[in-house]
Amino acid sequence: MSIYPRKIDRAAAERLLRGEPADPRHPEDFLAVLLAAAAAPAHAGELAGEEAAVARFRQARTTAAWRAADGGAEAIGEAGGLPGRPWRARPESRWVRHPMRIALVALTVTTAGGAALAAGATPWSQEPGDRRPATSAGSPSRSDEASPGRGQGGSAATTPRSSLVGLCRAYTAGAGDAPGKALDKPAFAALIAAAGGKHKVPSYCAELLAGESKGRGGSTQSSPAEGTPSQPGQSGKSGRGSPSDQPSPSDEATGRPSVRPTPTAQPGKTIPHTRSPETRP
Amino acid sequence: MMWRMDSLEGRSGTPAARPQIVGASPGRPEPDIDEAIRAAQNGDEAAFRVLFRHLQPRLLRYLTGLVGPDAEDVAADAWLQIARDLGTFSGDADKLRGWASRIARNRAIDHMRYMNRRPVSNLQIDDVLDLVSAENVERSALDSLSTDKAIAMISGLPRDQAEAVLLRVVMGLDAATAAQVLGKRPGAVRTAAYRGLRNLAKRL
Protein backbone atom coordinates (compact mmCIF):
# COMPACT_ATOMS: atom_id res chain seq x y z
CA MET A 1 0.00 0.00 0.00
CA SER A 2 1.06 3.53 0.22
CA ILE A 3 4.61 3.97 1.33
CA TYR A 4 4.12 7.65 2.06
CA PRO A 5 4.68 9.91 3.96
CA ARG A 6 8.13 8.48 3.51
CA LYS A 7 10.25 11.14 1.91
CA ILE A 8 10.71 10.91 -1.82
CA ASP A 9 14.31 11.39 -2.76
CA ARG A 10 15.35 12.59 -6.16
CA ALA A 11 16.22 9.17 -7.47
CA ALA A 12 12.83 7.83 -6.45
CA ALA A 13 11.11 10.83 -7.99
CA GLU A 14 13.00 10.31 -11.22
CA ARG A 15 11.86 6.68 -11.32
CA LEU A 16 8.28 7.75 -10.75
CA LEU A 17 8.50 10.31 -13.51
CA ARG A 18 9.74 7.62 -15.86
CA GLY A 19 6.74 5.50 -15.01
CA GLU A 20 8.34 3.12 -12.56
CA PRO A 21 7.54 2.56 -8.89
CA ALA A 22 9.55 4.74 -6.57
CA ASP A 23 10.66 1.63 -4.76
CA PRO A 24 10.56 -1.75 -6.49
CA ARG A 25 9.73 -3.39 -3.16
CA HIS A 26 6.51 -1.41 -3.09
CA PRO A 27 4.91 -1.85 -6.46
CA GLU A 28 1.60 -0.63 -5.12
CA ASP A 29 3.10 2.73 -4.47
CA PHE A 30 0.25 5.19 -4.61
CA LEU A 31 2.08 7.81 -6.59
CA ALA A 32 3.09 5.30 -9.22
CA VAL A 33 -0.53 4.28 -9.59
CA LEU A 34 -1.63 7.88 -9.80
CA LEU A 35 0.94 8.71 -12.48
CA ALA A 36 0.11 5.55 -14.37
CA ALA A 37 -3.52 6.59 -14.42
CA ALA A 38 -2.48 9.99 -15.72
CA ALA A 39 -0.61 8.31 -18.57
CA ALA A 40 -3.15 5.59 -19.21
CA PRO A 41 -4.19 4.64 -22.74
CA ALA A 42 -6.50 6.98 -24.56
CA HIS A 43 -10.21 6.74 -24.07
CA ALA A 44 -12.51 7.24 -27.01
CA GLY A 45 -13.47 10.79 -26.18
CA GLU A 46 -9.90 11.91 -26.37
CA LEU A 47 -9.67 11.12 -30.05
CA ALA A 48 -12.85 12.93 -30.98
CA GLY A 49 -11.02 15.70 -32.79
CA GLU A 50 -9.31 13.41 -35.26
CA GLU A 51 -11.38 14.16 -38.34
CA ALA A 52 -11.14 17.88 -37.77
CA ALA A 53 -7.39 17.64 -37.42
CA VAL A 54 -7.12 15.51 -40.55
CA ALA A 55 -9.16 18.08 -42.45
CA ARG A 56 -6.70 20.72 -41.35
CA PHE A 57 -3.87 18.51 -42.41
CA ARG A 58 -5.33 18.08 -45.88
CA GLN A 59 -5.69 21.74 -46.31
CA ALA A 60 -2.32 22.53 -44.77
CA ARG A 61 -0.56 20.20 -47.16
CA THR A 62 -0.92 22.76 -49.88
CA THR A 63 -0.03 25.83 -47.91
CA ALA A 64 2.78 24.15 -46.02
CA ALA A 65 4.85 24.15 -49.15
CA TRP A 66 4.30 27.84 -49.50
CA ARG A 67 5.56 28.47 -46.07
CA ALA A 68 8.59 26.33 -46.50
CA ALA A 69 9.46 27.96 -49.78
CA ASP A 70 8.85 31.37 -48.31
CA GLY A 71 11.32 30.76 -45.57
CA GLY A 72 8.42 31.29 -43.22
CA ALA A 73 9.12 28.03 -41.52
CA GLU A 74 11.03 29.10 -38.54
CA ALA A 75 10.99 27.81 -35.07
CA ILE A 76 8.00 28.01 -32.84
CA GLY A 77 10.05 29.42 -30.02
CA GLU A 78 8.77 32.92 -30.34
CA ALA A 79 5.18 32.05 -30.94
CA GLY A 80 2.96 33.36 -28.26
CA GLY A 81 5.66 35.65 -27.06
CA LEU A 82 7.27 33.05 -24.89
CA PRO A 83 10.81 33.48 -23.84
CA GLY A 84 13.32 30.93 -24.86
CA ARG A 85 15.30 30.13 -27.90
CA PRO A 86 13.75 28.91 -31.08
CA TRP A 87 12.85 25.28 -31.09
CA ARG A 88 15.03 24.43 -34.01
CA ALA A 89 18.30 26.07 -34.66
CA ARG A 90 18.42 25.51 -38.39
CA PRO A 91 14.94 25.48 -39.76
CA GLU A 92 15.67 26.07 -43.41
CA SER A 93 18.79 24.05 -43.78
CA ARG A 94 16.91 20.81 -43.77
CA TRP A 95 15.10 21.74 -46.92
CA VAL A 96 18.23 22.87 -48.52
CA ARG A 97 20.02 19.69 -47.66
CA HIS A 98 17.59 17.48 -49.52
CA PRO A 99 17.42 18.12 -53.23
CA MET A 100 14.42 15.83 -53.53
CA ARG A 101 12.54 17.98 -51.07
CA ILE A 102 13.28 21.07 -53.05
CA ALA A 103 11.92 19.40 -56.11
CA LEU A 104 8.87 18.37 -54.13
CA VAL A 105 8.41 21.87 -52.84
CA ALA A 106 8.63 23.26 -56.34
CA LEU A 107 6.03 20.82 -57.52
CA THR A 108 3.78 21.35 -54.58
CA VAL A 109 4.18 25.07 -54.78
CA THR A 110 2.92 25.10 -58.30
CA THR A 111 -0.01 23.07 -57.09
CA ALA A 112 -0.56 25.25 -54.10
CA GLY A 113 -0.71 28.34 -56.24
CA GLY A 114 -4.12 27.47 -57.47
CA ALA A 115 -5.34 26.19 -54.17
CA ALA A 116 -4.18 29.14 -52.18
CA LEU A 117 -5.71 31.49 -54.67
CA ALA A 118 -8.96 29.67 -54.67
CA ALA A 119 -8.97 30.11 -50.93
CA GLY A 120 -8.54 33.81 -51.34
CA ALA A 121 -4.93 33.86 -50.31
CA THR A 122 -2.05 35.55 -51.91
CA PRO A 123 1.28 33.92 -51.47
CA TRP A 124 3.03 37.00 -50.17
CA SER A 125 0.33 37.76 -47.69
CA GLN A 126 2.26 35.99 -44.99
CA GLU A 127 5.26 37.68 -43.60
CA PRO A 128 8.15 35.31 -43.07
CA GLY A 129 7.68 35.41 -39.33
CA ASP A 130 3.95 35.17 -39.45
CA ARG A 131 2.71 32.35 -37.30
CA ARG A 132 -0.95 32.83 -37.94
CA PRO A 133 -3.11 30.10 -39.32
CA ALA A 134 -3.42 32.13 -42.50
CA THR A 135 -5.92 30.79 -44.94
CA SER A 136 -6.57 27.65 -43.05
CA ALA A 137 -8.90 28.99 -40.43
CA GLY A 138 -10.82 31.20 -42.78
CA SER A 139 -12.07 28.78 -45.34
CA PRO A 140 -11.54 25.15 -44.68
CA SER A 141 -14.03 23.81 -47.11
CA ARG A 142 -13.10 26.00 -49.98
CA SER A 143 -9.43 25.32 -49.94
CA ASP A 144 -10.12 21.71 -49.28
CA GLU A 145 -12.12 21.41 -52.44
CA ALA A 146 -9.54 23.34 -54.30
CA SER A 147 -6.72 21.13 -53.20
CA PRO A 148 -5.67 19.28 -56.29
CA GLY A 149 -3.64 16.52 -54.74
CA ARG A 150 -5.64 14.91 -52.04
CA GLY A 151 -4.15 11.47 -52.16
CA GLN A 152 -0.76 10.29 -51.08
CA GLY A 153 1.99 12.21 -52.76
CA GLY A 154 -0.56 14.65 -54.02
CA SER A 155 1.89 16.78 -55.88
CA ALA A 156 2.36 14.06 -58.46
CA ALA A 157 -1.09 14.80 -59.79
CA THR A 158 -0.15 18.35 -60.66
CA THR A 159 -1.22 19.75 -63.96
CA PRO A 160 1.42 22.31 -64.69
CA ARG A 161 -0.77 24.61 -66.71
CA SER A 162 -3.42 25.12 -64.07
CA SER A 163 -0.71 25.58 -61.49
CA LEU A 164 0.88 28.26 -63.57
CA VAL A 165 -2.48 29.89 -63.90
CA GLY A 166 -2.69 29.91 -60.13
CA LEU A 167 0.74 31.42 -59.82
CA CYS A 168 -0.14 33.99 -62.41
CA ARG A 169 -3.25 34.96 -60.55
CA ALA A 170 -1.20 35.22 -57.43
CA TYR A 171 1.34 37.34 -59.17
CA THR A 172 -1.20 39.54 -60.90
CA ALA A 173 -3.19 40.09 -57.78
CA GLY A 174 -0.17 41.04 -55.78
CA ALA A 175 1.89 42.91 -58.32
CA GLY A 176 0.14 46.12 -57.44
CA ASP A 177 1.18 45.87 -53.83
CA ALA A 178 4.80 45.12 -54.44
CA PRO A 179 5.57 44.97 -58.12
CA GLY A 180 9.27 44.49 -57.81
CA LYS A 181 9.41 42.16 -54.90
CA ALA A 182 6.62 39.77 -55.63
CA LEU A 183 8.68 37.65 -57.97
CA ASP A 184 11.48 37.34 -55.46
CA LYS A 185 9.48 34.78 -53.59
CA PRO A 186 10.84 31.32 -54.20
CA ALA A 187 7.30 30.22 -54.85
CA PHE A 188 7.41 32.01 -58.17
CA ALA A 189 10.51 30.24 -59.39
CA ALA A 190 8.39 27.86 -61.42
CA LEU A 191 6.49 30.74 -62.96
CA ILE A 192 9.63 32.63 -63.85
CA ALA A 193 11.05 29.51 -65.40
CA ALA A 194 7.90 28.92 -67.42
CA ALA A 195 7.80 32.50 -68.62
CA GLY A 196 11.44 32.43 -69.54
CA GLY A 197 12.57 35.18 -67.26
CA LYS A 198 11.38 37.58 -64.63
CA HIS A 199 10.67 40.41 -67.02
CA LYS A 200 8.56 38.17 -69.21
CA VAL A 201 6.25 37.15 -66.38
CA PRO A 202 3.73 40.00 -66.77
CA SER A 203 3.14 39.39 -70.45
CA TYR A 204 3.24 35.64 -70.00
CA CYS A 205 0.63 35.82 -67.29
CA ALA A 206 -1.54 38.24 -69.21
CA GLU A 207 -1.61 35.81 -72.07
CA LEU A 208 -2.14 32.77 -69.91
CA LEU A 209 -4.92 34.31 -67.87
CA ALA A 210 -6.64 35.66 -70.96
CA GLY A 211 -6.67 32.18 -72.44
CA GLU A 212 -7.82 30.73 -69.18
CA SER A 213 -10.75 33.05 -68.64
CA LYS A 214 -11.90 32.49 -72.21
CA GLY A 215 -11.73 28.76 -71.73
CA ARG A 216 -13.72 28.80 -68.53
CA GLY A 217 -16.03 31.62 -69.28
CA GLY A 218 -14.09 33.87 -66.97
CA SER A 219 -15.14 35.14 -63.58
CA THR A 220 -12.88 32.80 -61.68
CA GLN A 221 -10.45 35.54 -60.94
CA SER A 222 -10.00 35.57 -57.27
CA SER A 223 -10.03 38.77 -55.41
CA PRO A 224 -7.33 39.40 -52.90
CA ALA A 225 -9.87 41.15 -50.73
CA GLU A 226 -11.66 37.90 -50.14
CA GLY A 227 -10.66 36.49 -46.80
CA THR A 228 -7.41 38.33 -46.98
CA PRO A 229 -4.88 36.97 -44.58
CA SER A 230 -2.76 39.97 -45.35
CA GLN A 231 -4.80 42.32 -43.28
CA PRO A 232 -3.60 42.32 -39.74
CA GLY A 233 -6.28 41.91 -37.19
CA GLN A 234 -8.56 39.68 -39.12
CA SER A 235 -6.24 37.23 -40.70
CA GLY A 236 -6.35 33.63 -39.78
CA LYS A 237 -8.77 34.28 -37.05
CA SER A 238 -10.56 31.15 -36.20
CA GLY A 239 -13.77 31.29 -34.26
CA ARG A 240 -12.26 32.03 -30.94
CA GLY A 241 -8.98 33.26 -32.20
CA SER A 242 -5.74 33.66 -30.46
CA PRO A 243 -5.24 37.12 -29.12
CA SER A 244 -1.49 37.11 -28.88
CA ASP A 245 -1.20 36.39 -32.55
CA GLN A 246 -2.31 39.89 -33.21
CA PRO A 247 -0.28 42.93 -32.64
CA SER A 248 -1.63 44.24 -29.41
CA PRO A 249 0.42 46.80 -27.58
CA SER A 250 -1.60 46.51 -24.44
CA ASP A 251 -0.75 42.87 -24.35
CA GLU A 252 2.87 43.76 -24.04
CA ALA A 253 2.24 46.33 -21.40
CA THR A 254 -0.11 44.57 -19.09
CA GLY A 255 -1.30 41.15 -19.98
CA ARG A 256 1.82 39.11 -19.84
CA PRO A 257 3.24 38.87 -16.40
CA SER A 258 0.02 37.90 -14.75
CA VAL A 259 -0.60 34.90 -16.90
CA ARG A 260 2.93 34.00 -17.77
CA PRO A 261 3.51 30.74 -16.04
CA THR A 262 7.26 30.93 -16.16
CA PRO A 263 8.21 34.24 -14.66
CA THR A 264 11.71 33.03 -13.93
CA ALA A 265 12.48 32.13 -17.49
CA GLN A 266 15.36 33.98 -19.00
CA PRO A 267 14.88 34.85 -22.62
CA GLY A 268 18.50 35.07 -23.57
CA LYS A 269 19.56 31.90 -21.95
CA THR A 270 20.66 29.10 -24.18
CA ILE A 271 19.29 25.83 -23.09
CA PRO A 272 21.34 22.86 -24.11
CA HIS A 273 19.32 20.26 -25.87
CA THR A 274 19.39 16.65 -24.90
CA ARG A 275 20.51 15.42 -28.21
CA SER A 276 22.58 17.04 -30.84
CA PRO A 277 21.06 17.72 -34.23
CA GLU A 278 23.35 15.09 -35.71
CA THR A 279 21.44 12.33 -34.02
CA ARG A 280 18.40 13.13 -36.00
CA PRO A 281 17.24 10.42 -38.32
CA MET B 1 0.86 1.37 -46.06
CA MET B 2 -0.61 0.00 -42.87
CA TRP B 3 0.32 1.84 -39.75
CA ARG B 4 0.56 0.16 -36.44
CA MET B 5 -1.21 2.49 -34.11
CA ASP B 6 0.25 3.86 -30.99
CA SER B 7 -0.40 2.01 -27.77
CA LEU B 8 -2.68 4.82 -26.70
CA GLU B 9 -5.08 4.02 -29.47
CA GLY B 10 -7.89 1.56 -29.48
CA ARG B 11 -7.79 0.69 -25.82
CA SER B 12 -10.61 2.90 -24.87
CA GLY B 13 -12.35 1.77 -21.76
CA THR B 14 -10.18 -1.24 -21.19
CA PRO B 15 -10.48 -2.04 -17.51
CA ALA B 16 -6.84 -2.73 -16.93
CA ALA B 17 -5.95 -3.82 -13.44
CA ARG B 18 -3.00 -1.53 -13.70
CA PRO B 19 -3.06 1.20 -16.31
CA GLN B 20 -0.38 0.96 -18.84
CA ILE B 21 2.20 3.67 -18.87
CA VAL B 22 2.23 5.34 -22.20
CA GLY B 23 3.70 8.71 -21.63
CA ALA B 24 7.00 8.21 -20.00
CA SER B 25 9.51 6.81 -22.39
CA PRO B 26 11.83 9.58 -23.41
CA GLY B 27 14.85 8.34 -25.26
CA ARG B 28 13.31 5.05 -26.26
CA PRO B 29 13.33 4.67 -30.02
CA GLU B 30 9.89 4.85 -31.60
CA PRO B 31 10.45 3.84 -35.19
CA ASP B 32 6.74 3.84 -35.98
CA ILE B 33 6.34 7.43 -34.94
CA ASP B 34 9.57 8.47 -36.60
CA GLU B 35 8.42 6.89 -39.81
CA ALA B 36 4.97 8.41 -39.50
CA ILE B 37 6.53 11.85 -39.09
CA ARG B 38 8.37 11.50 -42.36
CA ALA B 39 5.39 10.06 -44.20
CA ALA B 40 3.04 12.72 -42.88
CA GLN B 41 5.49 15.38 -43.96
CA ASN B 42 5.16 13.95 -47.44
CA GLY B 43 1.42 14.25 -47.27
CA ASP B 44 0.42 10.79 -46.07
CA GLU B 45 -2.88 11.15 -44.30
CA ALA B 46 -2.81 7.76 -42.57
CA ALA B 47 0.54 8.67 -41.10
CA PHE B 48 -0.88 11.93 -39.88
CA ARG B 49 -3.60 10.00 -38.09
CA VAL B 50 -0.94 7.94 -36.36
CA LEU B 51 0.63 11.15 -35.14
CA PHE B 52 -2.70 12.51 -34.02
CA ARG B 53 -3.47 9.43 -31.97
CA HIS B 54 -0.03 9.53 -30.51
CA LEU B 55 -0.18 13.17 -29.53
CA GLN B 56 -3.74 14.16 -28.91
CA PRO B 57 -4.51 12.27 -25.68
CA ARG B 58 -1.27 13.55 -24.23
CA LEU B 59 -1.95 17.10 -25.35
CA LEU B 60 -5.47 17.05 -23.98
CA ARG B 61 -4.29 15.92 -20.58
CA TYR B 62 -1.48 18.40 -20.49
CA LEU B 63 -3.81 21.18 -21.58
CA THR B 64 -6.33 20.19 -18.96
CA GLY B 65 -3.67 21.11 -16.44
CA LEU B 66 -3.34 24.52 -18.08
CA VAL B 67 -6.83 25.54 -19.11
CA GLY B 68 -9.09 22.95 -17.51
CA PRO B 69 -12.30 22.29 -19.39
CA ASP B 70 -11.18 24.41 -22.35
CA ALA B 71 -8.50 21.88 -23.20
CA GLU B 72 -10.32 20.58 -26.26
CA ASP B 73 -10.73 24.02 -27.78
CA VAL B 74 -7.11 24.86 -27.20
CA ALA B 75 -6.00 21.50 -28.57
CA ALA B 76 -7.98 22.22 -31.73
CA ASP B 77 -6.09 25.50 -32.07
CA ALA B 78 -2.85 23.67 -31.52
CA TRP B 79 -3.66 21.16 -34.25
CA LEU B 80 -4.29 23.96 -36.67
CA GLN B 81 -0.69 24.95 -36.20
CA ILE B 82 0.69 21.43 -35.95
CA ALA B 83 -0.96 20.46 -39.22
CA ARG B 84 0.23 23.63 -40.87
CA ASP B 85 3.83 23.49 -39.69
CA LEU B 86 4.46 19.78 -39.60
CA GLY B 87 6.27 20.03 -42.92
CA THR B 88 8.86 22.25 -41.34
CA PHE B 89 9.36 20.15 -38.24
CA SER B 90 12.58 18.24 -37.96
CA GLY B 91 13.25 15.51 -35.45
CA ASP B 92 12.13 12.23 -33.97
CA ALA B 93 9.20 11.19 -31.80
CA ASP B 94 10.67 12.73 -28.66
CA LYS B 95 11.22 16.03 -30.39
CA LEU B 96 7.78 15.90 -31.89
CA ARG B 97 6.18 15.61 -28.48
CA GLY B 98 8.26 18.51 -27.27
CA TRP B 99 7.40 20.57 -30.30
CA ALA B 100 3.70 19.82 -30.00
CA SER B 101 3.81 20.56 -26.28
CA ARG B 102 5.24 23.95 -26.96
CA ILE B 103 2.65 24.74 -29.57
CA ALA B 104 -0.12 23.61 -27.25
CA ARG B 105 1.33 25.64 -24.42
CA ASN B 106 1.51 28.77 -26.53
CA ARG B 107 -2.06 28.34 -27.62
CA ALA B 108 -3.05 27.81 -23.99
CA ILE B 109 -1.35 31.05 -23.00
CA ASP B 110 -3.15 32.82 -25.83
CA HIS B 111 -6.35 31.35 -24.56
CA MET B 112 -5.71 32.50 -21.01
CA ARG B 113 -4.98 36.01 -22.21
CA TYR B 114 -8.07 35.93 -24.30
CA MET B 115 -10.18 34.80 -21.42
CA ASN B 116 -8.35 37.23 -19.18
CA ARG B 117 -8.28 34.92 -16.30
CA ARG B 118 -6.12 32.58 -14.39
CA PRO B 119 -6.01 28.95 -15.40
CA VAL B 120 -8.16 26.25 -13.90
CA SER B 121 -10.39 26.96 -11.00
CA ASN B 122 -9.17 24.95 -8.08
CA LEU B 123 -12.69 24.45 -6.81
CA GLN B 124 -13.28 21.54 -9.08
CA ILE B 125 -9.97 19.98 -8.21
CA ASP B 126 -10.53 20.32 -4.49
CA ASP B 127 -13.75 18.42 -4.93
CA VAL B 128 -11.89 15.65 -6.62
CA LEU B 129 -9.24 15.64 -3.93
CA ASP B 130 -11.87 15.37 -1.24
CA LEU B 131 -13.45 12.54 -3.09
CA VAL B 132 -10.23 10.63 -3.42
CA SER B 133 -9.16 11.34 0.14
CA ALA B 134 -12.49 10.13 1.43
CA GLU B 135 -11.76 6.80 -0.13
CA ASN B 136 -8.77 6.69 2.16
CA VAL B 137 -6.53 5.49 -0.58
CA GLU B 138 -7.99 2.05 -0.60
CA ARG B 139 -6.45 -0.37 -2.97
CA SER B 140 -9.67 -0.70 -4.88
CA ALA B 141 -9.95 3.04 -5.12
CA LEU B 142 -6.48 3.24 -6.56
CA ASP B 143 -7.14 0.66 -9.19
CA SER B 144 -10.21 2.47 -10.31
CA LEU B 145 -8.51 5.82 -10.22
CA SER B 146 -9.47 7.30 -13.51
CA THR B 147 -7.24 9.24 -15.80
CA ASP B 148 -9.45 12.27 -15.36
CA LYS B 149 -9.11 12.18 -11.60
CA ALA B 150 -5.38 11.67 -11.81
CA ILE B 151 -5.02 14.62 -14.17
CA ALA B 152 -7.26 16.74 -11.96
CA MET B 153 -5.14 15.91 -8.94
CA ILE B 154 -1.92 16.81 -10.72
CA SER B 155 -3.55 19.96 -12.03
CA GLY B 156 -4.31 20.97 -8.48
CA LEU B 157 -0.63 21.42 -7.77
CA PRO B 158 0.99 24.83 -8.01
CA ARG B 159 1.20 25.69 -11.65
CA ASP B 160 4.92 25.15 -12.25
CA GLN B 161 4.85 21.81 -10.47
CA ALA B 162 1.77 20.64 -12.31
CA GLU B 163 3.27 21.53 -15.65
CA ALA B 164 6.56 19.85 -14.88
CA VAL B 165 4.85 16.64 -13.79
CA LEU B 166 2.48 16.63 -16.75
CA LEU B 167 5.20 17.27 -19.29
CA ARG B 168 7.35 14.51 -17.83
CA VAL B 169 4.70 11.91 -17.16
CA VAL B 170 1.95 12.59 -19.67
CA MET B 171 3.80 14.12 -22.59
CA GLY B 172 6.68 11.72 -21.98
CA LEU B 173 9.39 14.36 -22.19
CA ASP B 174 12.75 14.15 -20.50
CA ALA B 175 13.77 16.94 -18.17
CA ALA B 176 15.79 18.77 -20.79
CA THR B 177 13.02 18.77 -23.37
CA ALA B 178 10.44 19.75 -20.79
CA ALA B 179 12.74 22.58 -19.78
CA GLN B 180 12.88 23.76 -23.35
CA VAL B 181 9.12 23.75 -23.61
CA LEU B 182 8.86 25.78 -20.43
CA GLY B 183 11.76 28.09 -21.19
CA LYS B 184 13.49 27.10 -17.97
CA ARG B 185 16.65 25.34 -16.94
CA PRO B 186 16.41 21.54 -16.72
CA GLY B 187 17.37 21.69 -13.05
CA ALA B 188 14.46 23.97 -12.31
CA VAL B 189 12.08 21.62 -14.07
CA ARG B 190 13.45 18.61 -12.19
CA THR B 191 13.01 20.41 -8.91
CA ALA B 192 9.48 21.48 -9.81
CA ALA B 193 8.57 17.91 -10.72
CA TYR B 194 10.01 16.52 -7.49
CA ARG B 195 8.17 19.07 -5.44
CA GLY B 196 5.04 18.22 -7.32
CA LEU B 197 5.39 14.55 -6.47
CA ARG B 198 6.07 15.31 -2.83
CA ASN B 199 3.03 17.53 -2.71
CA LEU B 200 0.90 14.86 -4.29
CA ALA B 201 2.13 12.35 -1.75
CA LYS B 202 1.43 14.79 1.06
CA ARG B 203 -2.10 15.45 -0.11
CA LEU B 204 -3.06 11.82 0.04
Biggest β-sheet description of chain B? none
- Percent of sequence in beta strands of chain B: under 5%
What is the average per-residue confidence, as pLDDT of chain A, rounded to a whole number? 56
Contiguous uncertain segments of 5+ residues of chain B: 5-24, 131-140
Mean pLDDT of chain B: 80
Radius of gyration of chain A, Cα only, in angstroms? 25 Å
Secondary-structure-based class of chain A equals mainly alpha
Oligomeric state of the chains?
Answer: heterodimer
How much of the sequence lies in strands of chain A comes to under 5%
Beta-strand segment tally of chain A:
0
- What is the count of DSSP helices of chain B, taking H or I runs of 4+ residues? 10
How are helices and strands ordered from N to C of chain A?
HHHHHHHHHHH
Main sheet specs of chain A:
none
Offer a quick outline of the entry.
Chain A is mainly alpha-helical and 281 residues long.
